[in-house]
Specification:
The chain is an all-alpha fold. The chain contains five helices and no strands.
Length: about 140
């Protein structure tokens, strides 16, 4: 599972770059989609790298963000941000056909983008630490 997590980290790096690109182009709907993808992938990467349980045994990702914060894997509890992003992603993907809230303004979306950058850096740092532990065993 650790190798898969490592590969997904690189995949997620590309999604983060895409989120930045979409934001700089003023594509706020696409930015939300990619920011949510970064959050989703980061929690999956941590889950895969840390305990190697199969994907189908994953718990609520919102709860996992809280759990990994309380265990000290993450420096911040991203659960509330992810809960909002879950709803906004539905709006971004399905537009007016969804019952999700409207997308926030550009300033708020920039905050979400900045949070995704922080989360990615934390995930990358955690992967390096875990890789070091696995090598020393």
């Amino acid at each position: 599972m650790f190798e898969r997590a490592k590969n997904n980290l690189e995949f997620t790096r590309k999604k983060l770059e895409k989120a930045k690109e979409e934001f700089s182009n003023g594509e706020l709907t696409e930015t939300i989609h990619y920011v949510w993808t970064v959050f989703e992938n980061c929690i999956n990467i941590i889950k895969d790298a840390e305990d190697s349980k199969p994907i189908y045994e994953h718990k609520s990702k919102i709860n996992m963000f809280s759990l990994y914060y309380s265990l000290g894997y993450l420096k911040k509890d991203y659960s509330n941000i992810f809960a909002v992003l879950e709803k906004l992603r539905i709006r971004a993907d399905f537009g007016e056909y969804s019952n999700a809230p409207n997308l926030p303004n550009e300033t708020k979306i920039k905050e979400f983008l900045e949070e995704s950058i922080r989360l990615f850096k934390e995930t990358e740092e955690l992967m390096l630490n875990l890789q070091g532990k696995k090598k020393s065993k």
